[in-house]
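pasting VanZ family protein for the record, 128 residues
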Amino acid sequence: MSLDIPKPLYRIALVICLLAVLYLALTPVELVSGLGYDKANHLLAFLVMAWLADGGWPGGERAWKRWGWLLCYALFIESLQYELPYRESSWFDVLADLLGLALYSGLKAAFPQWAIFPRPPLQSPPRP
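structre below
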């Protein structure tokens, strides 16, 4: 059994999440060296956005488009951070974003019975 969350709700939540991540990515923060919690935040954010995108646009045939758009978003954020004097751009951030997408896909493939994963709508057979 899957959670019956309407697609528009997933889509609205994804837009809110995208805006929140953009705000956090462009806000000045104290720079911390190393690979600490920042990479975990990237991984978690993109895992959640993958889930929301999957719920808003379900179906295996759309997976590459969803992940492609989220990867473009990750690159967009890093390009903006590159231009800001108070932020750092890092390929490790993009790698953590990709790992978040891969982790979502892996969990969905390994545990398809979990109700948290959105399911594509069942198509009724064509009428004669």
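The mean pLDDT is 86.
The two ends are 30 Å apart (CA to CA).
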